[in-house]
Amino acid sequence: MTQPLHIRAAQEHVQRNGAGQQAPSQGGDASEHPLDRPNEAKPDPARAPTDELGVTLDRVTPERVEWLWEGRIPLGKLTILDGDPGLGKSTVTMDLAARLSAGRCMPDGSTGAPAGVILLNAEDGLADTVVPRLIAAGGDPARVLALPTVPASEDEGGQRIPSLPFDLHHVRACITRMQAALVIVDPLMAYLDPVVNAHRDQDVRRALHPLSLLAQETGAAVVVVRHLNKQAAGSPLYRGGGSIGIIGAARSGLLVGKDPENEDHRVLASMKCNLAKRPDSMAFELVKAGDGLRIQWLGPSPHTAESLLAAPRDNDEDRGALADAVQVLRQILAGGPKAVSEAKQEARQAGVAARTLSRAKAMLNVQSIKLSFTGPWMWRLPEPKPSEGCQT
Known about the structure:
With about 400 residues, the protein is α/β, with parallel strands linked by helices. It has helices at about 5-15, 90-100, 125-135, 170-180, 200-220, 245-250, 305-310, 315-330, 340-350, 355-365, and strands at about 65-70, 75, 80-85, 115-120, 145, 150, 160, 180-185, 220-225, 250-260, 265-275, 280-290, 290-300, 340, 365-370, 375-380. The chain has two domains: about 5-15 and about 65-300, Rossmann fold (3-Layer(aba) Sandwich), CATH 3.40.50; about 310-380, no CATH class. The strands form four sheets. Strands 5-4-8-9-3-10-11-12-13 form a nine-stranded mixed β-sheet, with helices on both faces. A three-stranded antiparallel β-sheet has the order 14-16-15. The protein has a two-stranded antiparallel ribbon with strand order 1-2. The radius of gyration is 24 Å and the shape is globular. The two termini are about 30 Å apart.
């Protein structure tokens, strides 16, 4: 049987370089940046053999992007998963781990071979939370390896939490051992080494570049979980905790948010996808199953990352006003495209404030169009897309 790409890539890399690479020391001259490798050669650029540097692109063989989950989680790349605490981010990652470990289809119906999963989870107990969630989601615990600690230095003794990027050699060895196609880091801030300033772009890029290389060299998808910051507005790309360099290093960015129209539902939306067209958002709910929670996927959702973050997060009164505005605007546009001036007038007569109407428009992904060159601007609702594939 032909081995999956991520397994072949991991084995070939081990044969070339070995699985037990040592982490760089954190010592060295005080003038060096802590993330620089010690004793790394730094020749005078004027003396560098420029005729030996780089590679001409005619020598590079194009490769097709491989996906763990089509359009959302690429193999061999870094993916960021953002969201407020308590919305189910970790449960989503365990749902994906369960599907992969058991060889089940992804929520949109895409399929793949069973593979291992490496889990770095600093917030949930393995016995009372992680394992019950994995079992509730139908996963294979034998294919999921948790890495709660690694050996400390000889001076420190004992065990300590893994540190990124300095303990990636341990993660690499685990990927090879488990033939893993997925590495979950939950949350990122718990694992960044103290020398890394998470709000400094240069630090973040130096810390995450080795993680991206690890994904590329092993063929495993790396999913990193973050909490949102306290900003009240702005692009979703700026809403994750820490430097913008974090989402900049990722090839895919996902967001979990509350469904503005249903308090019990959540939405997984794409906010960045460098390798394919941005996929549709998907709705889900958290369902009690045995001793844990599992994800029940509900199919495509019209909400985008932008519209999810446009909703008030804490003010119940504002949230109720927004829900009313969404319902009013949907009714106004139910009969087809309507001139913007007319739609705004009807909304105003229904008691909807202009700012709330703007948020409702974003929630519903209302499109602005012209039916003729000289005609007025119109608003219309997007056409619904049919649910496809495996939704459980």
